[in-house]
Amino acid sequence: MQFKNHFRFNLFIFLVTSSVFLWTCKPSKSEKNQEENEIAAYETPDFLSFYEKFGVDSVFQMNHIVFPLEGIKAVTDTAEIVSPDFRWQRENWIIHKPFDDVDGTFSREFLDIKGIVIEFISDDSGQFTLERRFGKLSSGWHMIYYREMGRY
Burial of 135 by CB count in 10 Å (0-12 exposed, 13-18 middle, 19+ buried)? Predict the structure, then answer.
């Protein structure tokens, strides 16, 4: 008889402990909904619309770049030293066109780091890369950084 009572007591303690453990480990409904609703900034309709227009409308593009634009100019000569304070200027900006993978020669990847969209484009060898960063300012999405295609 004492064995049965001891077994029931241990079973009861086990069930209560397990229930408490499972209840505290389970994400709340609001956490689940938040995780399901969070999509990368580069997948939002807002950014996709901006990105598409940025590549085809030169006036729009010029109005959505923060000049002087922080970035890195590609080194064309091994003896060339690029200033760490380099900034792209409005006067000599070359308009960017929509991404073209050139029959698979180039690939593109996007990252979202706390709302900053980082775009990486590289050739299939990975030796030549380009990086652009976009941020959402009070007046909408803007290019905030550009590292020209080159070997880095």
Answer: middle
At residue 82, the 3 state secondary structure works out as coil
Domain range annotation of the chain: 2-37, 41-151
**Which pLDDT tens digit goes with each residue over 103-149?**
999 999 999 999 999 999 999 999 999 999 999 999 999 999 999 99
Q: What is the CB neighbour count within 10 angstroms for residue 88? A: 21
Distance CA 30, CA 71 (A): 40
Residue 93, Cα to own-chain centre: how many angstroms?
Answer: 24
As given in the structure block, the two tokens for residue 35 are 């995780």
Q: What angle do CA 84, 89, 90 make, to 5 degrees?
A: 160
What pLDDT, on the 0 to 100 scale, is given for residue 35? Answer: 52
User: In angstroms, what CA-CA distances link 145 with 35, 40, 57, 66, 138?
Assistant: 29, 19, 19, 8, 17
Architecture of the domain whose range is 41-151: Roll (3.10)
pTM for this prediction: 0.74
